[in-house]
TrEMBL record:
Protein name (record): Cytochrome P450
Alphabetically ordered keywords of this record: Heme, Iron, Metal-binding, Monooxygenase, Oxidoreductase
Family statement drawn from the similarity comment of this UniProt entry: Belongs to the cytochrome P450 family.
InterPro entries per UniProt: Cyt_P450 (IPR001128), Cyt_P450_B (IPR002397), Cyt_P450_CS (IPR017972), Cyt_P450_sf (IPR036396)
Pfam families: p450
Organism: Streptantibioticus rubrisoli
């Protein structure tokens, strides 16, 4: 088939439901495909994606990129936030910001959060049981999928529980910036969300300056107020980024894993019988149904990708969904197998921009799935799931489930 037709089929409802069939064919006919209309090289092999993500000559689109591609970016608070944040900054700013925040995501700090994750999960599963008891079914996303990551990242940062519910919608609105093509409505929603979130985190840092606590806000505050390692704006935007990024991907991971297990009852039964396999199952879910479908890079020098010359200044899109099902890297890639081991997935990217919160997301997924199946071994779908309309994120808006036998 024509490579462009395969690529564009991803934007259809059928392609959103099953992106793997066209991506497999695209990898076969044009694994490094340059689309003239989009002015982008699309990469679908694991080796090529990993190479680009770890290459020092590939950069993320940042404020310098905005000057050329989004000349009106100053009119959009969301663009100002997004393209100057740690997520979209390059060296030296990226390394400086990442080093300051990384202490919150050390193995010791993540391990210290396990008790909080366990307690929050137990409370939410109580809510799930109550909802099913009253209505016969529940939306997993509303009861567990969103509240769990929001509560955990709120615990880490220092966002009071009473304030956390408002971030569900604000996070989704700000997340519209992850889309490769944004409409006027996307910008409007993202701008409004970023403005509101910035106001909130400014107020929170002011409160912590008066009364410090054991949280990320209090830890970073001296770096902005006294040590000069962060500007006040960088502090606010870093907290905003950590909060939104800390729950969006994990929310997707939880629902995608639950849905994969419900669709593979024999694999779910293995986890019920052997809970020690749950970490493997979370990793397999990250590979089999990747939450972040693609990510962008720009070449800062000429390079060769999969034997294809790529000039400096080129746009590259690493299609993580395709890379994680590359048969050269993963034997029998379309088989969902909770006992699969040794997978090195690209679901959290790779290289300098590898996700700081990956270990925390894996912990949340492992705790939630283990407890969910232990408490509700007869879990099943109670309706048709509804996917989020997104090109960049593989996520569910709604996942109706019930905990009873038929």
């Amino acid at each position: 088939m024509d490579p462009q037709a395969l690529l564009f089929s991803l934007f259809t409802p059928e392609g959103r439901e099953d992106p793997h069939t066209p991506l497999e064919e695209l990898r076969r006919v044009a694994p490094v495909y340059y689309d003239k209309d989009l002015d982008t090289f699309f990469l679908t092999r694991y080796s090529d994606c990993h190479s680009v993500l770890t290459d020092p000559n590939s950069a993320v689109p940042d404020l310098t990129w905005c000057e050329a591609e989004l000349p009106d970016w100053r009119e959009h608070p969301a663009a100002d936030f997004f393209y100057s944040s740690m997520l979209r900054s390059n060296q030296p700013d990226h390394g400086r910001l990442r080093k300051l925040v990384s202490g919150a995501f050390t193995a010791r700090r993540v391990a210290a959060l396990q008790q909080a994750v366990e307690e929050i999960t137990d409370r939410l599963l109580d809510d799930l049981a109550d909802t099913v008891a009253h209505h016969g079914h529940a939306d997993f996303q509303n009861v567990v999928g969103y509240p769990l990551p929001v509560a955990v990242i709120g615990e880490l940062i220092g966002v009071p529980a009473a304030d956390q519910a408002q971030f569900w919608q604000l996070g989704q609105d700000a997340g519209r910036l992850l889309e490769p093509v944004r409409s006027a409505e996307d910008w409007q929603r993202a701008d409004a969300a970023v403005k509101q979130l910035r106001d909130y985190f400014r107020e929170l840092t002011a409160a912590r300056s008066r009364q410090p606590a054991d949280d990320l806000v209090s830890a970073l505050l001296p770096m902005a107020r006294g040590e000069g390692q962060l500007t006040e704006k960088e502090l606010t935007d870093t907290l905003l980024l950590v909060f939104v990024a800390g729950f969006e991907t994990t929310t997707s991971l939880l629902a995608l894993t639950v849905h994969a297990l419900l669709g593979h009852p024999e694999q779910r039964a293995r986890l019920v019988d052997d809970p020690d396999l749950v970490p493997n199952a979370v990793e397999e879910s990250l590979r089999w149904d990747t939450p972040v479908r693609m990510t962008e890079r720009i070449t800062t020098a000429p390079m060769s990708v999969g034997g294809v010359p790529v000039p400096a200044g080129s746009n590259l899109t690493t299609v993580l969904t395709a890379a994680n099902r590359d048969p050269e890297q993963f034997p029998d890639p379309h088989r969902f197998d909770v006992s699969r081991t040794g997978s090195k997935v690209l679901s959290f990217s790779a290289g300098p921009h590898y996700c700081l919160g990956a270990a925390l997301a894996r912990l949340e997924g492992t705790v939630a799935i283990r407890k969910l199946l232990a408490r509700f071994p007869s879990l099943r779908l109670a309706g048709t799931p509804r996917r989020r309309e997104s090109l960049s994120l593989r996520a569910y808006e709604s996942l109706p489930i019930t905990t009873s036998e038929r």
